[in-house]
Every structure is written in structure tokens, then in C-alpha cells.
Amino acid sequence: MIPAPFEYIAAESPGHALELLADYGDEAKLLAGGHSLLPMMKLRLATPAVLIDIGRLEQLAGVQADDGELVIGATTRHADLAAAELVRAEAPLLAYAAAQVGDPQIRHRGTIGGSLSHADPAADLPMALVALGGSVEIQGPGGSRVVAADDFFQGFFETALGPDELLSAVRVPRRPGVPWGYQKFVRRSNDWAIVGVAVVDGRIALANMGATPLRATAAERALAEGASPAAAAEHAADGTSPGEDMHADREYRRHLARVLTRRALEHQTG
Amino acid sequence: MTRIELTVNGDKRSDEVEPRLLLVHYLRETCGLRAANVGCDTTSCGACTVLLDGRSVKSCTVLAVQAAGQDVVTSEGLSADGELHPVQAAFRLNHGLQCGFCTPGMVMAAVGLLAENPHPTEEEVRAGLEGNLCRCTGYHNIIRAVLAAADTQAEVQA
Predict the structure, then answer these.
(1) Which residues of A touch B63 (CB under 8 A)?
(2) CATH class given for the domain over B86-157
(3) What residues of A are in contact with residue B48 (Cβ under 8 Å)?
(4) Per-residue three-class SS string for A96-139
(5) Could you report the predicted ipTM of this complex, rounded to two decimals?
(6) Beta strand pairing status for A166-173 and A69-73?
(7) Which of A112, B7, B83, B116 has the fewest CB atoms found within 10 Å of its own CB?
(8) Residues of A with CB below 8 A from B62's CB?
(9) Which of A155, A173, A191 marks a domain boundary?
């Protein structure tokens, strides 16, 4: 399978990438690791006329501490995120989630910004960002803005990113020692979650239980009101209407959400 | 067309490529290196695994233009002066293959794994080769081969 023809431009800086986006608009796509975009292009589900490569921009990669938050460059690869000492110590759920993406080769290429912009509701990092209460930094023609994870994911593979904008960094709270739990149900290794659950300090996020990663708000409320993990987990699927596919029908997904939430709450580390 | 300059198995190359050319097709058709196989073509099977700046990647999901300025190593580039690389030798000795289609990718994934973790446990080898499928062997001899290669490399370095 070979992508449709396109023009390739290696951006020289984030500003250059924004200029190119302004010039080409909807015709262009940003390329970083390419592990969401290239498979789509090979299947001709995506046929951008122009690819703007930001994968080599060192300004966009790496992890830094900024007061109460870790700031993770958008082109930080999953393997580097999983191995980063600062992330392992202060946002361990995010490091763990990065290590659950795909397989080693995929983690050597795929980037956090790419995964979040792609916004697959079954993916690890979108769910992790929602559980952590993180946010994304977005650069655009009018400057930069910060969007909370809960507002960033807007629909099935849809985000708050405009066609002329670039997701430049990801912010998560620095919280060493806070308990967290992570459960991902798959039938094959390195697959997307049939259902996933990430828990951090009373916040519960679900993967593949709707068009976006979701908060299990009823279960969170029950926990806050003093319910046991098992009792709170009974509410994990409340209000959800997950999709059906060859792996699971709606009721089975709702069952998995309850079981995995209980396990995530009962087996927290940190 | 876009000009790319890169190193393939130690040789500096400069080629005009179509931007949509996949790295695996560049290696097989432009460079004439046929070790990396196109298996699933969907980033699943790992038969096209090569090293890009020392890290294992699936070359069916990398554009040749993305490899510009970088160092690519295929299974052909591992052996030197007719001597098999320790991982290749261990696959041979432990019969870590049957039909052989997945083998170049398995070998490159194993070389990448041992570079990151020179002394893996069996469990770490299994997890480290998660991105490579073999439809013949049931994996046991492949795992043995990688563990044996780790021992050999340790001896060589001692």
C-alpha cells in the first residue's frame, strides 16, 4: 500500500510550520512520527496534498519541569516518554501509558502530540491525559493557548485543534507519590484497548467507551462520597453508550468498564 | 522528487526519491537490499524492521524522506567480513526460524532490544519482540536464540 502523492516540506522551526499551515490550510497535515497518519495515508483514508514534517524539530521534544507541571514536547516519542526519569517520578501513570502503546518499534517512532491529535478514543495517551487532568499547548496564527484535556477531545478522532494550529506541548501536574491504576483489556498483544481505564487520585478516565476518552463521573462521585472501590466501580459505565465491533458489543464493553475500574481502583500503585 | 542523503549499512548514499516512497521500498528497490520484507504492510508484523539511528523501526511505516540524514541498518549490514553477527549466529545455532520470512525483522528487533537491554530476562525478550510475528515457530527457539545471543555478547565483552 502506497500513499497518494503529496509534497513534502521539512519545517525549519515551529514558526515555519505555522507559516506553512497558514499557506496551505486544509490541504496540509503535520507529520511527526507518522505512526497514526501514515497508516491512514496508506489506506487512502487521508490524502493530504502537503506534509509538513515537524519530527526533526528539537525545540518540540523533551521533558521539562515548570513550577507545578511537567511540560512535554509534542514530538517526544513514546519510548522516551516512558523512560524519562522526571515523568516516571512525577507523573508515573503517563510513563506507564506510553509504555503500553503498540510495540517497541512503534514506541520508537510515535509521538505524544501525534497520538493526542489523532484522538483515537481507544488509545492509551488520550485516556491518560484525561485521567491526569492535563492540558495541551496549541500554537496558532493568533498566538498560543492552553486547552484542558477534558475540552480538547471533542468527538470521534476530533479535537479542538484548528487546521492552522500546531499542538506544541503537553502539560501534566507534577504529583510524585499519588496513587494511580491502569487497566487495558486487549485480545492480542500490542492492540488498542477494547476498554481501558486509568485512575489517578480519584479521577477515572475510560478508553473506547464513547467517541472520546471519557471521565467516569458517576463512579468518581461515588468514590468522593466514600463508596468502596467495588461499589464505586459499579457506576463506571453510567451514562456511556460505547460502540460495537467484532471484539465486543455495547453491554460487554459496559461490563468491562465496571470490572476494569474496580481492578484499577483496587490495584493502585504509587 | 526530493533528494535524501543518508547512511545505509555504513555506505553514504544520495538519492532522488518520491516523498511517498516508503523506507522499506527504498531499501529493497533503490538500494537492492532485500532482507527487510513487506509482510502485513500495516505496522503489525515487524518483518520490515530495520534500525534507524540505532533504534528498531518498522520501515513500512516510515517514509524514506524521514530517514534523511540518519543511519539505517538492515540485516545485511550486521555481518562483517563474512562473519555472522552474534544474533544472526544464535538464530542459526538455535534454529530460530522455519520459513525465514520473519527472520530479518526478528534479528533486527533483537539487535535493537539487546542494545537497549544487554541482559534481558526471558520475559523481557518476549515483551521486546512483541512487535514481530512468526507464523511458524511458536517463538520458543527465537526466544532461545535471543537469550543465547545475549550470553555470547556478554562473553565477547568480558
Answers:
(1) 8, 31, 34, 38
(2) mainly alpha
(3) none
(4) HHHHHCCCHHHHHHCEHHHHHHHCCCCCHHHHHHHHHCCEEEEE
(5) 0.96
(6) antiparallel
(7) B83
(8) 34, 38, 109
(9) A173
**Rounded Cα gap, residues A76 and A235, in angstroms:** 35
Which DSSP state fits A46?
-
Query: Number of residue pairs across A and B with CB atoms under 8 Å?
Result: 81
Per the CB < 8 Å rule, is B130 touching A190? Answer: yes
Residues in A touching B110 (Cβ below 8 Å): none
In words, the CATH class of domain B2-76 is: alpha beta
State yes or no: pLDDT of B158 exceeds 70.
Answer: no
- Check whether residue A85 and residue A169 sit in a common domain: yes
Task: Indicate whether A75 and A160 sit together in one domain.
Answer: yes
Distance, in angstroms, between A3 CA and closest chain B CA?
Answer: 6
* A2 found inside a domain: no
Residue B63 is nearest to which of A34, A56, A189, comparing CB atoms?
A34
- Which of A42, A103, A111, A187 best tests the B interface by mutation, with the highest count of B CBs <10 A? A103
Checking if the pLDDT of A144 tops 70, the result is yes
Tens-place pLDDT, residues A59-100 = 999 999 999 999 999 999 999 999 999 999 999 999 999 999
| A236-250 pLDDT, tens digit each | 999 999 999 999 999
The per-residue pLDDT for range B113-124, each reduced to its tens digit, is 999 999 999 999
Q: State the smallest CA–CA distance between residue A214 and chain B in angstroms.
A: 27
For chain B, give percent helix, strand, coil, nearest 5.
40, 20, 40
| Closest CA in chain A for residue B17 | A8
- Show me where the domains of chain B are located: 2-76, 86-157
User: Residue A187, class by beta-carbon neighbours within 10 Å (0-12 exposed, 13-18 middle, 19+ buried)?
Assistant: exposed
Q: How many domains does chain A have?
A: 3
Question: Residue A93 belongs to a domain with what CATH number?
Answer: 3.30.465.10
Q: Last residue of a domain, which of A173, A191, A214?
A: A173
pLDDT of residue B128: 97
Domain match, A47 and A79 both: no
